[in-house]
Design brief:
alpha/beta, 7 helices, 34% helix, 5-stranded mixed sheet, 228 residues
Length: 228
């Protein structure tokens, strides 16, 4: 069983703080086997992390968190960025065109771009896997809803720290029964539902700090763009 972190953000995300190096160092320090950096609508840092992961004894999985019209979708195993703003269905198709894995993160948390505000349960079930444990939830209700849905539909389940600072990498982990230590094998095992999930909630004061930092960085970046 491999210990895999499937949902993290680097400084390339508008609301992320730390560079790839710190994320990989933390992943190694907490004993992870594999990690995916999943920045918002950006893939460059993730591709960099996937290339450099072996230097830290890790398996790197490239991916990103895509802003579809319905909400967020994780695309894993990608080689190129999927553009934001597509429909939910088109976003899934764009991931599959790259033989990637479409994981639906925090689907029942509407305040954080969960897709269930805009799609049906049948559409949710079209994803390859459901993130049933997300560490950045103030209560566990949305996680429980996601797990009940995944179990009722017999869908593969994942967990993710949704870390926006390196210290929170590894808060939630997907244990993957992969046939070998490779990104393709990990994604195939997830697709087949050979996973278990575990995790703990990000402390509320850290979640607040991450959110506040994201707002500050977004405002700063907007102001800088106006003067370019």
């Amino acid at each position: 069983m491999l210990s895999v972190e499937l949902h993290t953000h680097s400084s390339l995300s508008y609301d992320g703080r730390d560079p790839v190096e710190l994320i990989l160092e933390q992943a190694d320090a907490v004993g992870l086997d594999a990690i995916a950096v999943t920045d918002h609508d950006e893939i460059d840092a993730s591709l960099d992390a996937a290339e450099r992961a072996a230097d830290y004894g890790l398996l790197g999985i490239p991916g990103m968190e895509i802003s579809s019209k319905a909400g967020h979708v994780l695309g894993l195993g990608l080689e190129e960025a999927v553009p934001p703003g597509l429909s939910y269905e088109s976003t899934l198709e764009a991931i599959w065109e790259q033989d990637g894995l479409a994981v639906i993160p925090h689907p029942f948390q509407e305040s954080r771009h969960g897709v269930m505000a805009r799609i049906s349960r049948e559409e949710l079930a079209a994803g390859d896997a459901i993130e049933v444990y997300n560490s950045r939830l103030l209560t566990g209700r949305a996680n429980r809803q996601a797990e009940r849905f995944a179990r009722a539909r017999d869908l593969p389940m994942t967990a993710g720290s949704d870390a926006h600072i390196s210290e929170m990498v590894g808060q939630a982990v997907t244990r993957v029964d992969a046939d070998e230590r490779s990104a393709d094998a990990v994604l195939e095992a997830i697709r087949e539902g050979r996973t278990t999930v575990e995790g703990k909630r990000t402390p509320w004061h850290i979640s607040f700090r991450q959110a506040a930092g994201g707002v500050t960085r977004r405002v700063r970046n907007t102001m800088l763009s106006l003067f370019r």
